[in-house]
Amino acid sequence: MMETYCATSISEFFQRLETLNPQGPSDWPPLLFRGQIDERHHPLAALFRPGKFRRREGGTVVRERFDPSRHNRLENLAVREIRTKGASYFAELMSVPARDDDLGWMTIAQHFHMKTRLLDFSASPLVALRFATAEMGNRSATIDADDPRATSCFGEQKICFLKEALDTARKASAVFVAKPKKYAVGPMSLRCIRSHPQTFWYSPAHFLARIRAQQSYFAVQPNAEAAIECIAKIVIPATAERQIKISLERMGFGYGGVYPGLEGVVKDVDWWMKWDGALE
Q: Helical H runs in 153-218?
């Protein structure tokens, strides 16, 4: 059963961690942490999340669902394309996955935001907290432009639809905590990954500098029904996110801390230009 806690500051966050992991770093395997900007959704790999609303020929509106045969075929093609067309950029990698290490190639794809069956976790609770507070207090409702109700509702129906969107707006982020019993290591083929009976944990090689900086581990879901078990969730109210993120920036866990290189530097500077009190 997953326990739920609340933290409104860095110090309170650490107090919750002490409750979960009294042995500290000496405990092995270590706890893993995942930051999510919306605490309402249980961790699920992007490949298996419902897609946007699509209007099919004939006017019917459907929501995209995971199709195993179709996605498996596309996944095979994607790994092959990344491996062959990315060959000229291998010098940018800290190490190159073996040709038959599909899991290694998926790790690289995951860090460049491709939808995969991998889900990011970190051995660092502060890295996870950094990702959880990425939206920093944004409580605004988001309305999917492809949602048929956004264009077909009028009058009172429209008002009800907008009120529903506001009521369901994100009000808190969360750090999910997992306690794996063991880890898999590569190389591993897609066929082997899909044949696993349940979600397994993966400790990747440091193919990219950001994998090392983010202390990355992954939960690997072989199918849409395989659950990702977490032992706790630490909820961060949206009203506390800004101050927590400022504290993280001062502790070196800003963009530059989790995205090594010029990208992280520029994002850090941009963030301070937007949120420093002297410039508001």
A: 155-167, 190-194, 209-213
